[in-house]
């Protein structure tokens, strides 16, 4: 039973995110924050070890340099104030200059040459892992808006967070090394100033932690709004929607949606902006200038008492500002780890999520027979476990949301048979095919391939035995040949296979009119010489994929829905004639195909109502006969 399905009749996903952001308290233990960030550092070390090592080295080196500059400056001022010899002053300046030249050259090489290459490598490897995981998920997961939000979030944030964690760690090492050295120096010169700085640091950590939690809430609230904004942007940008926007009222609707969405984004920003303002005021007035002026008063009193000279005063002020900047940056990066952890937790949950459709281990033999025994499938929300992405305030759907898509279905077929599964929209036809393909597993009953439960077989091998064209097939912006071969095209090995598949799909006439033949690019998205096919022509390309796959069983879900009657007849005739040794399953609510089928299964309301040949079902004068006559009359009227 898919675990990701969720009630679609509940409040809109924008409102759910908003309620969650307002009500749900974000709590993380220090241990959780530590574990999540260590996990991400391990990921980076695994994918790009050079990146991890260089960030550690860079952190230590620049930490020493930052502290060394301040110490050199302090010694330089002391030498000048207390009459040190000129040679010592020159030596200090020379050492400082040499440090700056060497470290500056290393810094520029690393950040402008080596670092960008490592980031790109990390991005590619992490995205590849996400794609692989997404491919393994149940199809039902993509029907869950909350799961989909988190999936998009993981895709967008994963490598960005990985980069930030490793770079923050490098900077953290830098700041710790430099701050430790400078605070130690300050303790020897003015202990009270050092204590004041430490108090400021602790208060800043507390404040920044609160701000980061607030930032995370805002990000979660903005996420679905940003997705909607990107969707509307995509609708206006892609050619697929250009004609529809110009001939329908969708343009006005989308603009209204865009305006409302923008208003919500502005409202969120305004609401959170006020909170950021008060945090900022407190940090500026109390932790910033307040502590600085307190330190100034203390130092002036020390000078008046003769305990501090002007050179020492200047050095302390210089070191103070350097320590303040270092500690401020250190604290900001420390508190960012809690923010990183919140994102990393979602990333880890995404990878921990286990699909319910699990692969077996048996190799898949050549197809001989297929059987469904008392199969039922229900979108049973009451029995649906709450997967870990769901929020604590998740409210299960009401019982009336439950829906039986299929009820106690039993049917069978053998190699070489041509079957038609028919019924009105919503009868359960497509759900049946998804069960046959093992995109779902049945709630009850069993599905047998050659007499063995399909769950025993390796799921990838099993699916390769079945070629399917769904109603929502996709055409890709590549060549015709690559579309037919699903990207795995070799001209020397596959050219004839592609041409034969296109001929079987009744695409040869169109192909002859294309200058570049099977090398023609589909769509003009990336190639101005590409071609835009009609809906029926695109459908033929999708059907040609099935022919080229040389599978044992072909499933065609509404295979001729975009074709005119003549093209539909030719295609159906070609399929039945050229696949004599293969099993073909037609799914349709149009009955022009059914006369060619060996057996017909009529579904209504998820129940198998009738089965038999066309002649048998017409003689029975039941639901199939009624549906066939209605369609025949409609077709005759359109021809008059």
List the helices and strands and how they pair.
Elements: H1 13-23, H2 30-47, H3 49-81, H4 86-136, H5 145-189, H6 191-237, H7 242-247, H8 250-304, H9 310-352, E1 369-379, E2 403-414, E3 418-422, H10 429-436, E4 444-449, E5 452-453, H11 459-464, E6 466-469, H12 480-484, H13 491-504, H14 508-512, H15 535-549, E7 553-557, H16 565-578, E8 583-588, E9 599-604, E10 607-612, H17 614-620, H18 623-639
Parallel strand pairs: 3-8, 3-9, 6-7, 7-8
Antiparallel strand pairs: 1-2, 1-4, 4-5, 9-10
Helix pairs in contact: 1-6, 2-3, 2-5, 2-9, 3-4, 3-5, 3-9, 4-5, 5-6, 5-9, 6-8, 6-9, 13-15, 17-18
Report on this model:
A hairpin with a 2-residue loop joins strand 4 and strand 5 (452-453). The chain has helices at residues 13-23, 30-47, 49-81, 86-136, 145-189, 191-237, 242-247, 250-304, 310-352, 429-436, 459-464, 480-484, 491-504, 508-512, 535-549, 565-578, 614-620, 623-639, and strands spanning 369-379, 403-414, 418-422, 444-449, 452-453, 466-469, 553-557, 583-588, 599-604, 607-612. It contains 18 helices and 10 strands. With 640 residues, it is an alpha/beta fold. Helix 13 packs across helix 15. The model is unreliable at 1-25 and 381-402 (pLDDT under 50). It is 62% helix and 10% strand. Among the domains are: 25-352, ABC transporter transmembrane region fold, CATH 1.20.1560; 474-550, P-loop containing nucleotide triphosphate hydrolases (Rossmann fold), CATH 3.40.50. Strands 6-7-8-3-9-10 form a 6-stranded mixed beta sheet, sandwiched between helices. The longest helix is centred in the middle third of the chain and has 55 residues, at 250-304.
């Amino acid at each position: 039973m898919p675990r990701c399905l969720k009630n679609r009749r509940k409040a809109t996903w924008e409102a759910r995110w908003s309620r969650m952001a307002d009500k749900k308290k974000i709590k993380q233990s220090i241990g959780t924050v530590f574990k999540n960030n260590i996990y991400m550092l391990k990921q980076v070390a695994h994918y790009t070890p050079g990146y991890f090592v260089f960030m550690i080295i860079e952190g230590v080196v620049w930490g020493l340099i930052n502290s060394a500059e301040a110490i050199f400056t302090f010694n330089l001022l002391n030498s000048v104030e207390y009459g040190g010899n000129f040679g010592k002053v020159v030596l200090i300046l020379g050492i400082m200059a040499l440090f700056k030249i060497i470290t500056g050259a290393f810094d520029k090489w690393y950040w402008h040459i080596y670092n960008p290459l490592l980031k790109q490598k990390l991005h590619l490897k992490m995205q590849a892992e996400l794609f692989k995981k997404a491919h393994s998920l149940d199809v039902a997961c993509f029907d869950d808006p909350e799961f989909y939000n988190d999936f998009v979030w993981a895709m967008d944030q994963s490598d960005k967070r990985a980069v930030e964690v490793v770079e923050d760690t490098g900077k953290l090492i830098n700041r710790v090394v430099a701050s430790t050295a400078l605070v130690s120096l300050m303790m020897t010169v003015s202990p009270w100033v050092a204590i004041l700085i430490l108090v400021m640091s602790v208060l800043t950590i507390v404040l920044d932690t609160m701000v980061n939690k607030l930032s995370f809430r805002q990000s979660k609230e903005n996420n679905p709004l940003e997705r909607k904004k990107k969707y509307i942007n995509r609708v206006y940008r892609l050619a697929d929607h250009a004609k529809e926007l110009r001939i329908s009222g969708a343009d006005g609707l989308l603009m209204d949606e865009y305006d409302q969405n923008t208003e919500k984004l502005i409202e969120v920003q305004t609401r959170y902006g006020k909170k950021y303002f008060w945090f900022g005021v407190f940090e500026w007035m109390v932790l910033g200038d307040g502590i600085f002026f307190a330190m100034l008063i203390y130092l002036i009193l020390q000078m008046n008492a003769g305990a501090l000279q002007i050179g020492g005063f200047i050095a302390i002020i210089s070191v103070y500002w350097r320590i303040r900047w270092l500690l401020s940056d250190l604290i900001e990066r420390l508190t960012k780890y809690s923010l990183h952890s919140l994102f990393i937790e979602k990333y880890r949950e995404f990878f921990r999520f286990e699909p319910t459709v699990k692969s077996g281990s048996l190799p898949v033999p050549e197809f001989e027979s297929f059987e469904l025994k008392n199969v039922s499938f229900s979108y049973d929300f009451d029995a649906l476990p709450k997967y870990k992405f769901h929020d604590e305030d998740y409210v299960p759907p009401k019982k009336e949301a439950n829906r039986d898509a299929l009820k106690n279905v039993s049917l069978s077929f053998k190699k070489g048979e041509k079957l038609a599964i028919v019924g009105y929209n919503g009868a359960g036809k497509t759900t049946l095919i998804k069960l046959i393909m093992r995109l779902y597993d049945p709630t009850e009953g069993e599905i047998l391939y050659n007499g063995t439960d399909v769950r025993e077989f390796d799921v990838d091998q099993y699916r390769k035995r079945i070629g399917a064209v769904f109603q929502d097939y996709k055409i890709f912006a590549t060549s015709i040949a690559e579309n037919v071969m699903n990207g795995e095209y070799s001209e020397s090995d596959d050219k004839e296979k592609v041409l034969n598949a296109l001929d079987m799909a009744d695409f040869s006439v169109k192909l002859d009119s294309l200058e570049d033949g099977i090398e023609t690019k589909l769509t003009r998205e990336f190639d101005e010489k590409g071609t835009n096919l009609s809906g029926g022509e695109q459908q033929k390309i999708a059907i040609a994929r099935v022919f080229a796959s040389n599978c044992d069983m072909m499933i065609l879900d509404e295979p001729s829905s975009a074709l005119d009657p003549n093209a539909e007849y030719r295609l159906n005739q070609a399929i039945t004639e050229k696949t004599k040794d293969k099993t073909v399953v037609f799914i349709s609510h149009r009955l022009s195909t059914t006369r060619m089928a060996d057996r017909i299964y009529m579904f209504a309301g998820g129940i198998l109502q009738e089965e038999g040949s066309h002649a048998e079902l017409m003689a029975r004068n039941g639901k199939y006969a009624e549906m066939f006559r209605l369609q025949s009359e409609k077709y005759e009227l359109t021809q008059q």
